[in-house]
Design a protein that fits this description.
The chain is α/β, with parallel strands linked by helices and 335 residues long. 44% of the residues lie in helices and 19% in strands. The chain has 2 domains: 147 residues, Nucleotidyltransferase, domain 5 (2-Layer Sandwich), CATH 3.30.420.40; 166 residues, 2-Layer Sandwich (Nucleotidyltransferase, domain 5), CATH 3.30.420. It is built from 10 helices and 13 strands. The strands form 3 sheets. Strands 1, 2, 3, 4, 5 and 6 form a 6-stranded mixed sheet that branches. A 5-stranded mixed sheet has the order 9-8-7-12-13, with helices on both faces. The radius of gyration is 20 Å and the shape is globular. The two termini are 21 Å apart. It binds magnesium ion (MG). Magnesium ion binds next to helix 3.
């Protein structure tokens, strides 16, 4: 029996989760929500996390009905992510590990998403699409690494959607992407947008600039509605993501596709991905917002796998890094 507590705070969500041999014992989380039209800055986000982290830690232990002495290992997000929030959360993880006398494991955030997705859905060896506010990657496992087959060349798909939400001034509560998704359901007219797939990679910054300009012109002249633009933007960027995922699936001969990350709970993306999978005799797996949005349990789950296969992070090596690629981690826990 191995119990791992995981600390996550690489962006505007802060979560602490406890995993015991594949079972989620607790997974409380808070989100730093900014007013409409505004993004979240690293220093403000870190201040938010500092303000709530000890309350969340108490909740995580109470809900799991555990004492610190029941914990075997403390896992925390090493990166990638925003510097100030990462530092804040790592500092608390390091402190409790020393107070409690427990080993530390530094976890790659992307690997956390993949391992939580595999655990929850029981997908065994999927081609993974990881899509969020900060990341866009198509990943598949080979020879002890999660290999990146394709990725964004500029901004993440979630960042594209979030920044568009800011342009049309819709709420960031619970998340801008969720509100874009709801508005997109009411869109009736498809506005043609640039489509930017480059081999296995995608690019979103040009699409964002184009739709920002279109929003100002087309909305003021009544050519289309904000709902139409949400719909068109989703259809375009999701088609791009399904295209590069399909290419990786074809290359790997995959029978499974797993969608993880905050954008992964978008139902329209899941629907489009399922259609592609059906054509290729593959199965599509996704999780709901508890596990696809950043959370502490995913760091605990990856930490559990790492700890059990021999990873321990020494105190002097327990720094964070804003850039930490998925394929830097040696995957010692898979065949
Ligand atoms: Mg994430």
């Amino acid at each position: 029996m191995t119990v791992v507590i995981g600390f996550e705070g690489s962006a505007n969500k802060i979560g602490i989760g406890i995993m015991k041999d594949g079972v989620v014992l607790s997974n409380p989380r808070r989100t730093y929500v900014t007013p409409p039209g505004q993004g979240f800055l690293p220093s403000d986000t870190a201040r938010h996390h500092r303000g709530v982290i000890l309350t969340i830690l108490k909740e995580a232990l109470e809900e799991a009905q555990l004492r610190p002495s029941d914990i075997d290992c403390v896992a925390f997000t090493k990166g990638p992510g925003m510097g100030a929030p990462l530092v804040t959360v790592a500092l608390v993880a390091r402190t409790v590990a020393q107070l409690w006398g427990k080993p530390l494991v530094a976890v790659n955030h992307c690997v956390g998403h993949i391992e939580m997705g595999r655990q929850i859905t029981r997908a065994d060896n999927p081609t993974v699409l990881y899509v969020s506010g900060g990341n866009t990657q198509v990943i598949a496992y080979s020879d002890r690494r999660y290999r990146i087959f394709g990725e964004t060349l500029d901004i993440a798909v979630g960042n594209c959607l979030d920044r568009f939400a800011r342009v049309i001034k819709i709420s960031n509560d619970p998340s801008p992407g969720y509100n874009v998704e709801q508005m997109a359901k009411k869109g009736t007219r498809y506005v043609e947008l640039p489509y930017a797939v480059k081999g296995m990679d995608v690019s979103f910054s040009g699409i964002l600039s184009y739709v920002e300009e279109a929003a100002h012109k087309m909305l003021s002249s009544g050519q289309c509605t904000a709902e139409d633009l949400c719909f068109s933007l989703q259809e375009t960027v999701f088609a791009m993501l399904v295209e590069i995922t399909e290419r990786a699936v074809a290359h790997c001969g995959s029978r499974e596709v797993l969608v993880v990350g905050g954008v992964g709970c978008n139902r329209r993306l899941q629907e489009m991905m399922s259609e592609m999978c059906a054509c290729r005799n593959a199965k599509m797996f996704a999780t709901d917002e508890r596990f696809c949005i950043d959370n502490g349990a995913m760091i605990a789950q990856a930490g559990w796998e790492m700890f059990r296969s021999g990873h321990v992070t020494k105190l002097e090596d327990s720094w964070i890094t804003q850039r930490h690629r998925t394929d830097e981690v040696e995957v010692t826990w898979r065949e």
